[in-house]
Amino acid sequence: MPHSKYIVAANWKMNKLASQAKPFVSEILMSYIRKNADLVICPPYTHLPHLSANKIISGFYLGAQNISEFESGAYTGEISADMLLDVGCTHVIIGHSERRAMNPFENSMIPNKISFALSKGLKVIYCCGEPLENRINGNEKSYVHDQLTHDLYHLSDLSQLIVAYEPIWAIGTGKTATSDQAEEMHLFIRKTLQSKFDKRSENLKILYGGSVKANNSIELCSKENIDGVLVGGASLIVDEFIGIVNSFNQ
Ligand code: PGA
To answer: What is the atom index within ligand 1 of the atom nearest the CA of 212?
Structure first.
């Protein structure tokens, strides 16, 4: 069902310097037509305070790329929900495939991280998606189904959750899923979550991520079940990113 307003989320990963963040975002905002798409910028942690004042003036949302499942304490190198809220974050990405690959314990922490972030009032951009091998073997849906049941089925409702389908083989590779492949999986995700959560998943937005560029975003967002995009590499280039954002305003 959703759409009504698209979401374009930028995942800067470990790129740019804090001092570059504000001028970069200001340039984006000069050409940003704030009509059909909400913008969420997810820079590295050190950049967040630099963007939070800007955020209030300009009306974009600020997100983090990860979060601890704990309130506070002896967790060296982690970041808490309160710390993110304190610098103006409204969103947090959880379950990105790069984090799942880097930390062998990440998968098991995801359900708690999601519940904790939601309990603190953060909106969660939850990432799922299959590796190449599962796509080749034709079992990509069962792989994603397992992720959804493991990561989300303990929740009581999905009103503050956004799903990002990011096939791992399409991330940073220049290989985008075709809009039909993406639409098929998005529909599958929507139906799977509807059968578990019923009306509590009614307004669920499902974003596509994986080599989204200005020249493929129009085709992707023409699909019924694609409610926006999560953009990595192209979100670091002003013209590309403006092209993507404004493709939702055609
Ligand atoms: P990409 O990354 O756009 O560079 O493929 C997307 C992501 O990892 O969120």
So the answer is: 3
